[in-house]
Specification:
about 30% helix; 24 strands; alpha/beta; 14 helices; about 500 residues; single chain
Length: about 500
């Protein structure tokens, strides 16, 4: 006979926070969002802590090295997607670790044999008007020239005109040499009235670009998430198939923490993966696991040695696991149940295992709800996919712009290892869709607004830390009519 859980499967949208007393010192500026991301013993401090409770999803359309750098600058962490070759993922990790604030690895590059048409198409795709011209068109090839919007006239130059005919050649360029400080680079930019300064090595291979517009990066973001060597912290996704080859490559590249990427983590494959990693590296290598939706799954992975555990099955905006397989749970119910199990585990074993709410976030306040319900941090896909820093293209759509966003279980991604049940390799049916999300601009701006909302809400709840929020929060279940009442109603809205 089936074991029925009578508690309804609830979502974040079914709850509201009740305000608590806001004291005079409980203001946005005093709210601290630091949170642990790896297990620690009672009385000790975690070895790795986030400055904001945000991580980006392990997805092709979300988390590459550019997103990892942008999010680490703001105090969060990205997990580089693992549905790519081991070599490519390790290289992305290395790029994050080699990055220095203000020094940008060029992502707009062409060869002298490209045409003006190629220049215009690259500009439309990236939004960048300054392009490095290298011998092989790579970001680290021999620098042969630079193209900016001042080097051509669309109304007069033919589209098949070769780049070598209108670029500023390398011998005429003012460059900086590898090893230069950011302060020295900015001095050259200002002295020569440049918009960009290429940084080259002794063989004139391109290493970085420094842009005038990024001058403010010389003042380090106070929230930046850095390792002991002042490099940005970065995570990396792994699977339970090729972990014996992938994990060593990622560790060698410098990944600070790993995470098993799977739609359902209550499995012996994840147990074996965690045990192998801990057996080989001990506590030196941190690894998260999941996803689970109830206490039994949490305890199983915690006992295996997982450093954090992800919660959520089928709640993502592009995930169709629930309708395809009929498996999952409302995200609010899942977080509440697993958070209770996490607290019981801590009391019994003296070990705190952080939990991450993955999926089910529709509105910004849902993030605050997830934290209030017990999540230590959240993992977001759709939210980050819309920003400039995500790997996908910005596309004109109707009267505005969108960015592409697809699930790892879609035919486009074909990340079969994420849904692996030990059988034949390959994606037998889709568990994700291919879609668009509204273009959201720069990550700094959008994330800054979201963080302010979270801190403001916490102040209304009388909390200055995530732990205080979880200890003192009061929640109420809402009705469908109260949801209507909560939005604009009974008025005639002005045209926007």
């Amino acid at each position: 006979m089936a074991n029925i859980v009578n508690e309804p499967s609830r979502t974040f949208g079914e709850y509201l926070l009740l305000p608590n007393l806001t004291t005079k010192d409980c203001v946005v500026e005093n709210v601290d969002l630091k949170t642990p991301i790896c297990r620690f013993k009672k009385g000790e401090k975690p070895q790795l802590t986030l400055n904001i409770p945000f991580s980006s999803a392990i997805m092709q359309s979300v988390s590459d090295n550019n997103m990892a750098i942008a999010l680490a600058k703001n105090g969060g962490i990205s997990f580089i997607y693992c549905s790519q070759s081991i070599e490519n993922e390790a290289e992305m990790v290395r790029k994050v670790k080699k990055y220095k604030a203000g020094f940008v690895i060029s992502d707009s590059n062409l060869t002298p044999e490209n045409t003006l048409q190629d220049v215009l198409e690259l500009k439309a795709r990236t939004g960048h008007s300054t392009m490095a011209i290298t011998e092989d068109g790579s970001s680290d090839g021999k620098l042969l020239g630079i193209v900016t919007g001042r080097d051509y006239r669309i109304t007069r130059d033919p589209l098949d005109k070769k780049v070598k005919e209108f670029m500023t050649p390398g011998e005429q360029l003012i460059v900086g040499r590898e090893g230069i400080t950011l302060s020295e680079a900015n001095d050259i930019i200002w002295e020569h009235k440049l918009n960009a300064l290429p940084i080259v090595d002794e063989d004139f291979n391109l290493v970085y670009m420094v842009f005038r517009k990024d001058y403010s990066e010389d003042k380090e973001n106070p929230r930046s998430l850095l390792d002991e060597q002042k490099r940005y912290v970065v995570g990396a996704g792994i699977n339970s198939r090729d972990y014996k080859e992938r994990v060593p490559a990622l560790v060698e590249a410098g990944a600070d923490i790993l995470c098993i990427d799977s739609s359902e983590g209550f499995s012996e494959w994840q147990f074996d993966t965690i045990k192998w990693i801990k057996g080989k590296y001990g506590d030196e290598v941190k690894v998260g696991a999941g996803n689970v939706v109830e206490k039994e799954g949490f305890k199983y992975l915690a006992d295996a040695g997982a450093d954090f555990i992800k919660i959520g099955i089928g709640g993502g905006s592009i995930c169709i696991t629930r309708e395809q397989k009929g498996i999952g749970r409302g995200q609010a119910s899942a977080v509440l149940d697993v958070a209770k199990a996490r607290n019981e585990y801590f009391e019994k074993n003296g070990i705190y295992v952080p939990i991450c709410s993955d999926g089910g976030i529709v509105l910004d306040y849902h993030i605050t709800l997830a934290l209030a319900m017990g999540a230590d941090f959240v993992m977001l896909g759709r939210y980050f996919a819309g920003f400039d820093e995500s790997p996908t293209s910005k596309i004109k759509y109707g009267n505005g712009y969108v960015k592409e966003y697809w699930g790892e279980g879609s035919n486009r991604a074909r990340n079969w290892a994420r849904y692996d049940l030990g059988g034949k390799a390959g994606l037998q049916f889709e568990e994700g869709v291919d879609s668009y999300v509204p273009y959201a601009g720069k990550l700094d701006d959008g994330l800054g607004s979201t963080l302010h909302k979270i801190k403001s809400t916490m102040c209304n709840c009388g909390a200055k830390t995530i732990k205080e929020l979880q200890q003192n929060v009061r929640l109420t279940v809402v009705s469908s009519t109260s949801l209507t009442e909560g939005g604009a109603h009974d008025v005639i809205l002005k045209n926007q």
